[in-house]
């Protein structure tokens, strides 16, 4: 692959190859010397048009650990503020010969469009409601390490499915890896036609969580509910917030996940989120660095075999 734009473009084999490599980087990241040279001599530019803590920090750390020259574009201070378009901005940076462009954008499809215009490898760090492929890959690696496998598991994805690129990428990845997926949430936050993805849909947590191996909670994304129905946080927590009482319906060894940032007391009880016997939320963050190292390493191997095209 030339780019990493979405899980929809990856095969089961691609996912396994990437997670196997990420697993070796996860071990490296626990060593005192964390350096490798897979990206030595390459330039990585991170362009985040939307807020981020985990994704931006881990892409920066991943690039630096692999020896790339990493530049974070301060988009708030860029000429986007003077009316320059996304494509003109990308073409301007493209002329500086970056090798890897990491892009987060609030509009679905913006990263795919940009990838068609530049010569370098593009990694989607989240585009609107569309995809967040490295999040699904880090979730997959976290599950594989906690459960010893990433197939034939029963996995519940709970909450605001409709606005979630994390849910979309995870549904694609977990489906490709042959897991049983249950979506739980209020009908108002369930996208139309979701049953076509081969998932089971529930609006009751007790029913949906029954005997699952993995419980993946999602943030209530109020910023994406433009003009639509916004549930009251109290009511939402009562019906859909994960606490130990609702978790008791899952398997006794079920793990609890959340991509972050989380709203404690809205979609998840804070004490449960911090319970290291059940919650793997910090492992997800740790695996985020390893997965991004693996993704950029694999794309760089491709780049080195591909002759540089003339910039027109
Ligand atoms: N999970 C995730 O994408 O977090 P950030 O928005 O902080 O990057």
From TrEMBL:
Record-listed carbamoyl phosphate binding positions: 54-55, 104, 132, 135, 260-261
The name this protein goes by in its record: Aspartate carbamoyltransferase
Annotated InterPro entries: Asp/Orn_carbamoyltranf_P-bd, Asp/Orn_carbamoylTrfase, Asp/Orn_carbamoylTrfase_sf, Asp_carbamoyltransf, Asp_carbamoyltransf_Asp/Orn-bd
Family: Belongs to the aspartate/ornithine carbamoyltransferase superfamily. ATCase family.
Pathway(s): Pyrimidine metabolism; UMP biosynthesis via de novo pathway; (S)-dihydroorotate from bicarbonate: step 2/3
Subunit and interaction comment: Heterododecamer (2C3:3R2) of six catalytic PyrB chains organized as two trimers (C3), and six regulatory PyrI chains organized as three dimers (R2).
Lineage of producing organism: Bacteria, Pseudomonadati, Pseudomonadota, Alphaproteobacteria, Rhodobacterales
Species: Sulfitobacter porphyrae
Gene that encodes it: pyrB
Domain Aspartate/ornithine carbamoyltransferase Asp/Orn-binding: 153-298
Signal peptide: none
Keywords tagged on the record: Pyrimidine biosynthesis, Transferase
One MF annotation (Gene Ontology) recorded for this entry: aspartate carbamoyltransferase activity
Span of domain Aspartate/ornithine carbamoyltransferase carbamoyl-P binding: 2-144
HAMAP family: Asp_carb_tr
Enzyme class (EC, first level): transferase
Binding-site positions, L-aspartate: 82, 165, 219
Catalyzed reactions per annotation: carbamoyl phosphate + L-aspartate = N-carbamoyl-L-aspartate + phosphate + H(+)
EC number: 2.1.3.2
Free-text function comment from the UniProt entry: Reversibly catalyzes the transfer of the carbamoyl group from carbamoyl phosphate (CP) to the N(epsilon) atom of ornithine (ORN) to produce L-citrulline. Catalyzes the condensation of carbamoyl phosphate and aspartate to form carbamoyl aspartate and inorganic phosphate, the committed step in the de novo pyrimidine nucleotide biosynthesis pathway.
